[in-house]
Write a structure and sequence with these properties.
mainly beta, seven-stranded mixed β-sheet, 3% helix
């Protein structure tokens, strides 16, 4: 059964750094890309960043460019998100997605990121 699991969320001081990880299983699942979305309190879910799992090309939302970095890990179907946070705009639940070459996109349950002043 396909599954996407995020980890690494927690409390970080404004201006501090945090790394999120995401693993899609089974390992045999052939992925086209993986992505991160987030949903802040009282707001709609929004796109954060995406990486092509073959070419490793990336794209980012304007709000995180220069502060967040997505990368493909050496482990199969695993990506990380390195974040340099700011207080208001980055507090959210962060969701990871995995898009196979064929079929639907899979979503994780999300991991909470809280930014303190």
């Amino acid at each position: 059964q396909e599954q996407v699991v995020e980890s690494g969320g927690g409390l970080v001081e404004a201006g501090g750094s945090l790394r999120l990880s995401c693993v899609a299983s089974p390992r045999s699942l052939s992925l086209h890309d993986m992505a991160w979305f987030r949903q802040a309190p009282g707001k709609e879910r929004e796109f954060v960043t995406r990486i092509n799992m073959i070419s490793r090309s990336t794209n980012y939302a304007d709000s995180v460019k220069g502060r967040f970095t997505i990368d493909k890990d050496s482990a199969e179907n695993t990506v990380s998100l390195d974040m340099k946070t700011r207080k208001t705009r980055d507090k959210a639940i962060y969701y990871c997605t995995a898009q196979p070459h064929f079929g639907r996109e899979y979503w994780g349950q999300g991991t909470q990121v809280t930014v303190s002043s």
